[in-house]
Amino acid sequence: MHIRILGASACIGQPGQTTCFQIGGDTLIDCGTGCASLAEEELLAVRRVLLSHGHIDHCGLLPLLADAHACRQGPGIEVYGLAETLDALRQNLFNGKLWPDYTQTPSSDRPWVKLVPVEVGDAVPLVEGMATALPAQHSVPALGWLVEGPWRAMAFSGDSGPCPAFWHWVCGVPSLTDVICEVTYSDEHLQEAMRQGYMTPSLLAPLLADLPPNAHLWLSHGDPGCRDALIEQMLRQAPPGLHVARLKEGALIEL
Q1: Model pLDDT for residues 211-244, shown as the tens digit of each residue
Q2: How far is the C-alpha of 61 from the C-alpha of 30, rounded, in Å?
Q3: By its UniProt entry, which InterPro entries does this protein fall under (predicted)?
Q4: Is 178 helix (H, G, I), strand (E, B) or coil?
Q5: pTM as predicted
Q6: DSSP string of 112-152?
Q7: Which sequence spans correspond to the domains of the chain?
Q8: Residues 6+ apart with CB under 8 A from 60
């Protein structure tokens, strides 16, 4: 099973699309603007979306993905997220005012979007593995996700400030090889990061000590004005042996 990075930025503007990871061919983690890079047949192959939270850079293309299925008679999609996140989608995206409400059942068919609530610890079966909802601490209710493939596992923090429960969970996964972690700001913006529920290198570094040897840490969601500084700071503060790199669109993670 492979994970293809379609978007990993905090904002749009080349280079950069907002968060969206493709798992195999039928699952997305988040549905930011990176989803728009998929071809028609790839859009119609998407059957489920695992949401981290309801901010627009992580879910904004859900209505257009649903529209692609509706216009081409695709199979439709299931969207998994916290109950609070799904309520926000109903109120602000799927409300029939800005776009058709694809969560409602057409006259002769099922809805194109099914909203499926999950809680921390719930597992979602995938074709070649399993995705488990993990705790996160953000400015709105949020999740991380653990994706376990046939041989390896990848964890995604979602947008989150320090969340010891997330790190305790993922550090106990024997097959863990990769962690994608939001680090939006450099340490010069520590107070802003704490106010918004984001990471900086100095907030993240103490949480990394128990990661498995030779794990890969991928930094995502970097603010454009901080990208170079935060990667330099993270490289200095990370535990020895930990591979640290910026997550980029087009990257592949094999599980």
Answers
A1: 987 899 999 999 998 989 999 999 999 999 899 9
A2: 9
A3: Metallo-B-lactamas (IPR001279), Pdiesterase2 (IPR000396), RibonucZ/Hydroxyglut_hydro (IPR036866)
A4: strand
A5: 0.96
A6: SEEEEE--TT-EEEETTEEEEEEE---SSS-EEEEEE-SS-
A7: 2-254
A8: 18, 31, 32, 33, 93
